[in-house]
Write a structure and sequence with these properties.
- The complex is a heterodimer of chains A (103) and B (164).
- With 103 residues, chain A is mainly alpha-helical.
- The N and C termini of chain A lie far apart (61 Å).
- Chain B folds into two domains: 46 residues, no CATH class; 105 residues, no CATH class.
- Chain B is built from six helices and three strands; from the N terminus they run H-H-H-H-E-H-E-E-H.
- Chain B starts with a helix and ends with a helix.
- The chains are: A mainly alpha (103), B mainly alpha (164).
- Chains A and B meet through helix 1, helix 2 and helix 3 of A and helix 2, helix 4, strand 1, helix 5 and strand 2 of B.
């Protein structure tokens, strides 16, 4: 019973941490002034934010008696697709602003 | 014979495991997963022009942990930057010279740089020798370049180019 309680505590803490980082990412998206600065915010939300919530979900479902491993796949897919979408947005932004010195 | 049946054994294994993670390990799913893990690499063989060669598996695992650790650390750092006054942020583009030649290694490096908050890989020079990185708070450029090269690029060179 106590282990269940402890694990509940851990998963709740993870949810709160995850929500916090997602919130900070959203705040940054609203607050920061230019495109390149803003683009840094979603990477936070999609790594630690989603990561913490997924770990919490794994713990929670394991407690409920069914091992859930979908979360591993979700994080894998996010880790593969997030850099690609960020890269495409940077590419689009740099097209309008070609005054970055070439090496 | 095995080579003909499984032209990309790692891809087959990854597809099989992903299918089971998605659908559970019931006997029917095992069979369907095996069929897909055989058929998909076989059908996509013509579009894989340049296949990655992995070596140094312990290095790959260690790099995974280093990246996870750095994601957590830089998340906290960037969170403080975002919540603090915006004038403290010093964003800049930095060209990082690349030693790694393997295109898969460059993709992995660019992905790692984007996933760790605070840095964002933006462009690759046409000769694939420089990576354009946007830093939310650049500070010391030389230190940033040295960190990227030592922490991420060196292991990736061992992983993707070690066998050559």
């Amino acid at each position: 019973m106590t282990t269940t309680f402890l694990l509940d505590l851990v998963s709740s803490a993870l949810v709160i941490v995850g929500v916090f980082f997602t919130l900070v990412g959203s705040i940054g998206l609203v607050k920061l002034s230019d495109f390149m600065k803003r683009l840094h915010c979603p990477t936070k939300a999609s790594t630690l934010g989603v990561g913490c919530v997924l770990i919490a979900s794994m713990i929670d479902f394991s407690l409920a008696g069914e091992t859930s491993l979908h979360e591993l796949l979700i994080s894998l897919f996010i880790f593969i697709t997030a850099p690609v979408s960020a890269h495409l947005m940077v590419k689009a932004a740099l097209r309008d602003d070609p005054n970055i010195p070439r090496p | 014979m095995m080579r003909r049946l499984f032209p990309a054994p790692l891809l087959s294994a990854a597809l099989f495991i992903a299918w089971l993670l998605l659908n559970g390990a019931a006997p029917a799913q095992l069979a369907l997963g095996a069929v897909l893990a055989t058929a998909i690499p076989w059908l996509t063989e013509p579009v894989r022009v340049d296949r990655p060669r992995f070596s140094a598996w312990p290095t790959l695992v260690r790099l995974g942990f280093v990246v996870l650790f750095d994601i957590v650390v830089s998340n906290v750092r960037v969170a403080r930057l975002i919540l603090g006054p915006e004038a403290r942020i010093d964003p800049r583009f930095v060209w990082v010279p690349l030693t790694i030649r393997d295109p898969h290694g460059i993709v992995a490096l660019a992905g790692i740089i984007t996933l760790t908050p605070g840095t964002l890989s933006s462009d690759l020079s046409d000769d694939r020798r420089h990576l354009l990185v946007h830093c939310l708070n650049a500070g010391d450029e030389a230190l940033l370049i040295a960190t990227i090269k030592q922490r991420y690029e060196a292991p990736l060179i061992r992983i993707f180019e070690g066998a050559r």
